[in-house]
């Protein structure tokens, strides 16, 4: 089973990831009960000192009680340590269970949401969740449920002390609810501003060269300042509100502790309770409410984590990529496109419709058309990265979704318009980072794309690091290595989007050779072209105009047709009998096939 298949079928959703740690949480819950009981050691010790030791003046009693208290504190420290370690392990487990899923969701966001997903970052959301689960918050949350034990104990000490502690608890919990209610919106705004700020930062960095050359540094720094100011503003609002409640709760807890002491003193004067009870009641009340105070201190992180979890769950919605149960053989015969309409991810309006053609093994087809007419939209739909809203794309009669992504990927060679290489070596990039390196296939693809000499000319040859995005190579080198990656392992459907835009004459000749060879090997090759040299190795032509298929057929039939009615002559080098090439017009004409210089 391939890695993506196993990921898809076993992909735990967020609640499942938490649910899998249920027994761990149950253990922490039991530990919390014992820890909270042990937290009564201090008040009980005080009670014994006042009521027993001071009353009896007995040193042996003091020694016994103190030793016993010491042992209890030792247990307390031990259990606290175990609980902290347990919580941290659980948080790591949840993170590990979700990290692959979050990464996959991160990869899918641009494909499913397009521009509407620019602020959606599942990995950042997972980190926000981890900040809470790995911090002090969960321990405080586990302590809150034991509050009734403390309050009950105060009731045991004296009814009126219990009533006072209970009233205090109700007021504090009301403050917590108010805090929760009033913190939600600022927390959401803070997350949105944080995402916006990070987009500003990464966008500027990605385009650092343009920024420098066009003198945009100050403008972008101002933009950053504005994004930063909005972020700090949101942070201040969220922080002010949280600290207002945290301070109020803290002050109220102290006040309540003193109030219990005062009522206890009054009851002691009335001789209804001993001084020990008075002090113990005050400490226990304060102790009962301390987890609430701690939790409120963590409330911002808690709300941020909760909202991050909701966002992560939303990003995962519909991400059901379980691989088809039946494994089809890899395609080897036909590509059939029936009346497809496609739109960018997340968009409603289609950018291309009415495309209809069929190719069989060994066919070569060029796609031409003016800028913005929909050529790239078509190839994205053909390789399965843009959604198909109507019609179908079928390989050997089966729609693309009938193969698992990994498997279909081995049958597809795709060279996008903007070639993106990955940080790694040239060999790794050509072989698509295949886990088992196959040098023979790497060399074969490199030779086909005519990059072998280029690569061996580099100091580290195939082991040369290309840098992030292939930044250490020239645009032409990147394009040729991208071509080798597309040809790697002789895929059945090879789709090249303007493969010669950065190639020199030698590179173009090699491209033509490669297209011919791949076709002879039984591949279908589709080339988006602005320059005729790229379509010299194909015999079919599809013309796209204004988001529609304008013509499809053998090159020699289509070219005269598109030239005659529109007045745009056929490009130089193209077999259009009786027509004369007109380079300048071709470049700006409605169906631009720019003549090769
Ligand atoms: N990611 C996108 N989101 C929204 N609209 C898009 C996106 N990509 C392309 N479009 C729109 O789709 C239409 C077709 O664009 P496409 O890139 O397919 O044209 P093209 O023929 O390949 O152009 P070129 O020759 O300049 O590469 C254009 O109007 C463009 O604005």
Automatic annotation (TrEMBL):
Keywords assigned by UniProt, alphabetized: ATP-binding, Membrane, Nucleotide-binding, Transmembrane, Transmembrane helix
Record field: compositional bias (Low complexity): 581-590
Annotated Gene Ontology cellular component terms: plasma membrane; type I protein secretion system complex
Keyword Acetylation: no
Gene Ontology molecular function, alphabetical: ABC-type transporter activity; ATP binding; ATP hydrolysis activity; ATPase-coupled lipid transmembrane transporter activity
Residue span(s) of domain ABC transmembrane type-1: 26-304
Cross-referenced SUPFAM superfamilies: ABC transporter transmembrane region, P-loop containing nucleoside triphosphate hydrolases
Cellular compartment(s): Cell membrane
Similarity-based family: Belongs to the ABC transporter superfamily.
Protein's UniProt name: ATP-binding cassette, subfamily C
């Amino acid at each position: 089973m391939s890695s993506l298949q196993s990921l898809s079928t076993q992909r735990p959703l967020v609640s499942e990831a938490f649910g899998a740690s249920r027994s761990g949480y149950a253990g922490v819950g039991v530990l919390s009960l014992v820890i909270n009981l042990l937290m009564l050691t201090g008040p009980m010790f005080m009670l014994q000192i006042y009521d027993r030791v001071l009353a009896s003046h007995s040193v042996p009693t003091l020694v016994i009680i103190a030793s016993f208290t010491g042992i209890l504190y030792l247990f307390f420290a031990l259990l606290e340590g175990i609980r902290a370690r347990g919580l941290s392990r659980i948080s790591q487990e949840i993170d590990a269970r979700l990290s692959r899923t979050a990464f996959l969701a991160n990869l899918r966001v641009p494909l499913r949401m397009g521009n509407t997903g620019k602020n959606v970052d599942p990995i950042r959301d997972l980190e926000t969740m981890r900040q809470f689960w790995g911090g002090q918050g969960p321990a405080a949350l586990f302590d809150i449920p034991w509050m009734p034990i403390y309050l009950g104990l105060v009731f045991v000490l004296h009814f009126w002390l219990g009533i006072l502690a209970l009233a205090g608890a109700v007021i504090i919990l009301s403050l917590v609810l108010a805090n929760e209610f009033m913190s939600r919106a600022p927390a959401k705004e803070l997350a949105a501003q944080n995402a916006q700020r990070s987009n500003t930062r990464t966008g500027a960095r990605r385009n650092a060269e343009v920024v420098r050359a066009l003198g945009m540094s100050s403008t972008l720094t101002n933009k950053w300042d504005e994004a930063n100011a909005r972020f700090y503003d949101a942070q201040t609002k969220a922080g002010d509100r949280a600290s207002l409640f945290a301070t109020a709760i803290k002050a109220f807890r102290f006040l309540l502790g003193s109030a219990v002491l005062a009522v206890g003193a009054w009851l002691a004067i009335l001789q209804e309770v001993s001084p020990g009870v008075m002090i113990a009641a005050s400490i226990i009340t304060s102790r009962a409410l301390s987890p609430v105070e701690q939790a409120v201190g963590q409330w911002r992180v808690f709300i941020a984590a909760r909202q991050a979890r909701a966002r992560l769950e939303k990003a995962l919605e519909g991400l059901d990529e379980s691989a088809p149960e039946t494994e089809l053989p890899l395609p080897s015969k036909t590509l059939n496109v029936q009346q497809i309409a496609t739109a960018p991810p997340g968009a409603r309006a289609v950018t291309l419709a009415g495309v209809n053609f069929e190719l069989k093994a060994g066919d070569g087809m060029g796609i031409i058309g003016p800028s913005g007419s929909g050529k790239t939209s078509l190839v994205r739909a053909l390789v399965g990265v843009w959604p198909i809203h109507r019609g179908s794309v079928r390989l050997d009669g089966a729609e693309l979704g009938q193969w698992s992504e990994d498997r279909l990927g081995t049958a597809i060679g795709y060279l996008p318009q903007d070639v993106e290489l990955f940080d790694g070596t040239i060999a790794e990039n050509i072989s698509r980072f295949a886990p088992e390196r196959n040098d023979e296939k790497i060399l074969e693809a490199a030779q086909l794309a005519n990059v072998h000499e280029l690569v061996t000319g580099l100091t580290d040859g195939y082991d040369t690091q290309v840098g992030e995005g292939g930044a250490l190579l020239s645009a032409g080198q990147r394009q040729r290595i991208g071509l080798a990656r597309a040809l790697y392992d002789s895929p059945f459907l090879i789709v090249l989007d303007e493969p010669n835009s950065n190639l020199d004459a030698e590179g173009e000749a090699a491209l033509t050779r490669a297209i011919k060879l791949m076709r002879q090997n039984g591949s279908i090759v589709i080339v988006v072209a602005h320059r005729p040299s790229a379509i010299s190795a194909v015999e079919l032509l599809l013309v796209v105009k204004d988001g529609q298929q304008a013509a499809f057929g053998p090159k020699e039939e289509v070219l005269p047709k598109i030239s005659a009615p529109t007045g745009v002559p056929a490009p130089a080098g193209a077999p259009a009998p009786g027509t004369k090439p007109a380079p300048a017009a071709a470049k700006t004409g409605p169906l631009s096939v720019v003549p090769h210089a």
